[in-house]
Amino acid sequence: MCKPRQPQWQRSNVGFENPEQNSPGDSLRDIQDLSLNLKLSLDGEKSEGTGTFDNSLDSIDRKSNLENAFLKLSNGIIGGTEKASLMEKAEQNVSGSRFPVLRSKKYIFVIAVDCDSVSDIPKIIKTIMDVAGKENSIGLILSTSLSICEVHSLLISGSISPLDFDALICNSGGDLYYPSTSSEDGTGLPFSVDLDYQSHIEYRWGGEGLRKTLVRWATSVNEKKGQIVSEDESRSTVHCYTFDVKEPESIPPVKELRKLMRIQALRCNVIYCQNGTTLNVIPVLASRAQALRYLYIRWGMELSGIVVFAGECGDTDYEGLLRGVHKTVILKGIGNTALKLHSNRTYPLDHVLPFDSPNIHHAEGCSNEEIRSSLRKLQVSKE
């Protein structure tokens, strides 16, 4: 389970036990939840107070701490946004974001399909959204190795509104975002970052020292085998260092690269994505599975109501998405090319995946009716 190594928020039990769907009290509880971000301090400790906006912003010092924390945790996403506008935009996100509604959903559909071609993702998203329908009882989460900029471009190309999602797990779990109608940061994207999640995964993150070590590693590989690995600064973020890989078969497996970093006292998660053409390096506490566990604890989602949609194979973090008490629909014929990423294992993938679990069903394809049939067999009903 998601075990914080340092204080993250002041959790209130009010409203988390058996909440009534669309209860009028949700709006008040959401304000209390959202005010938690306003109580961050630079040393990661919880500030004292009652959890209200007045107490959080009643002094210039606290306001200054908020600005500094926001700048520190959102570096690479907000970019060069002026300090004077950060407070105003944070307050706008507090009033405009919809993410606390996750706990009122009966089911959460998590789209974690690692397609052989990125261009196939919008079609699968639309199919699953069509199955979910317009029911308010079903939430949608996108879980991917792509950066938030890539996700936004992909959604726009498929004529999909970002507001159709309740959360977006990007960079293989290195970043967690929520749609926002009022976000006007330096990127111009309609998303707000979860600062508490960033604070959580910051534990033992190597930061710039890790990045420099990875760059030296890439240089040594290139000296021996040619230009096959290069840093992709445009897709990298504060908690995800991305590298382009031209020849996936020429670089060491995940386990060896992680071991190399550990020898130098640098802990991290190494994930090969997009059929091995991309390498994401994220904090040791971050992953797509970890982000789901975080959402479960943070917003009180019902684990048994989570349905993960995945392909027959995927990125090297694939197996983590299938384990657990949640339900899983495996789409036949999707992600088969990624099998080569798992070929250097010391054990077969099917030895560690619970394919015989009653919570996992293999759909015959990725059509609307085939997905509906799988959901019926998993006893997932919108009624």
UniProtKB/TrEMBL annotation:
Region span, Disordered: 1-27
Keyword set, alphabetical order: Glycosyltransferase, Transferase
A molecular function (GO) term: glycosyltransferase activity
Source organism, top-level taxon: Eukaryota
Boundaries of every Sucrose phosphatase-like domain copy: 132-332
Biased composition, class Polar residues, residue ranges: 7-25
PANTHER family reported in the protein's UniProt record: SUCROSE-PHOSPHATE SYNTHASE 2-RELATED (PTHR46039:SF7), SUCROSE-PHOSPHATE SYNTHASE 3-RELATED (PTHR46039)
Protein name: Putative sucrose-phosphate synthase 1
Species of origin: Gossypium arboreum
